[in-house]
Amino acid sequence: MKLFETKKKESFDTRLKKLIFNFFPAYRGTGARVRFIASDYSEIHVSLKLFWRTRNYVGTVFGGSIFGALDPMYMIMLIKLLGDDYVVWDKEATVRFNRPVSKKVKARFIINNELLDKIKKDVAEKKEIHIRLPAQFEDNEGKVYAIVDKLLYIADKNFYNEKRKK
Questions:
Q1: Which residues contact 49 (CB under 8 A, 6 or more apart)?
Q2: Radius of gyration of the chain (CA)
Q3: Which domains, and CATH codes, for the chain?
Q4: Checking DSSP bridges between strand 128-138 and strand 144-156, what pairing results, if any?
Q5: Strand-strand pairing, 43-48 and 32-37
Q6: pLDDT (average), residues 102-123
Q7: Could you tell me the pTM of the whole model?
Q8: Which of 57, 132, 151, 163 could form a disulfide with 91 if both were Cys (CB 3.0 to 4.6 A apart)?
Q9: How far is CA 48 from CA 68, 108, 112, 128, in A?
């Protein structure tokens, strides 16, 4: 179920991955649900709502649920989009809570061809890079509730394996 307008389509494979993702205990525990994965993994939609498992002491969505819902998406997308010749790791994340989440919110992750080409070019030149990618939870009116800034490490796989041996 698409949460944002997009021309992208899901495939049988990405529908199956979405199902697996939503039943994976670590992700299921966040209370979030993956709602859409484009057939080429260039776009993912996620939703999160307030209910008994995500409620914190003051009656809003627990910050850990907000972070956990957004945490793995860019890494997974880049692993799929870049292929086996690259290593991708999450390095750090910063979360800014703009307002308490007390209703259903959604997030959209997009990696376009321009970004992918830039990553490949930079890794070809430098062998390893760090990139920052933003994500945010918003409601249907576009009001932003939380912003996550992800730092990812990307390297040429051969370079990375040699580096680890040293």
A1: 31, 61, 103, 104, 105
A2: 17
A3: 12-165 (3.10.129.10)
A4: antiparallel
A5: antiparallel
A6: 96
A7: 0.92
A8: 151
A9: 10, 12, 24, 34
Q: What are the Cα distances from residue 46, in Å, to 27, 58, 84, 131, 143?
A: 11, 24, 26, 22, 16
41 to 81, 111, 145: CA distances (angstroms): 7, 8, 25
Contact yes or no for 105/138 (Cβ under 8 A): yes
CB 137 within 8 A of CB 81: no
Q: What is the pLDDT of residues 7-53, one digit of tens each?
A: 999 999 999 999 999 999 999 999 999 999 999 999 999 999 988 88
**Above 90 in pLDDT, residue 136?**
yes
Q: Given this model, what pLDDT does residue 3 score?
A: 83
Rounded to an integer, what distance in angstroms lies between the CA atom of residue 27 and that of residue 63?
14
The pLDDT of residue 95: 92
If one counts every other C-beta atom within 10 angstroms of the C-beta of residue 162, the result is 11
